Amino acid sequence: MLTSFGKAFKTPDLRVKIFFTLSIMALFRVGSILPTPGVSYKAINLCLKNANGGGLLGLVNLFSGGALLHLSIFALGIMPYITSSIIIQLLTVVIPRFEALKNEGQSGSAKLTQYTRYLTVGLATLQSTGLIAVARERGRLFSGCQYDVIPNASWPRILTMVLIMTSGTAVIMWLGELITDRGVGNGMSILIFTSIAARFPTQLWSIKMQKG
User: Fold this and answer.
1) Which residue stretches of 34-78 are H helix?
2) What are 118-134's pLDDT values in tens digits?
């Protein structure tokens, strides 16, 4: 395996693609850490200390690399895109127009991809609105936590947060396409791997503490 990596780095074109992919992965992780403006980072950290990371919310948080419960600008992660992709694929079976586009080849696939992008933005808007609506109430996002995660819950601030989280999802989608076009492998799959791998150290430490 090390020999294969060595050969890959000796190839100039492949080396550029690898470094480009790693750069996008690093940028993705930075966006997953930066809190959305209007969120109390201190309150979130206090709530996370006593939060239960299990269940569906914990699973979604795992796929977002911990960004969901931190309410970061990339809080929604790759999930809106995955959901919209599944919906579009199902619609190709139900709607004849979509099935015809699928059979048109590259031009049809490009149109379906465009529909997937639009649907992703729509789902991101709905999901970010729901997430913020839950987070603005004490003890709902983090059971039993009585800290104000969103101190200023005015409508202008809420709308700004929804816009930022939705834009964050659009940026994630763009980063994934950049990796696919100019990097190594499928961009969305690599971003999913990056999110899950980012949680490994924390999960391993939690297991160690529980056994200890």
Assistant:
1) 41-49, 55-63, 67-70
2) 999 999 999 999 989 88
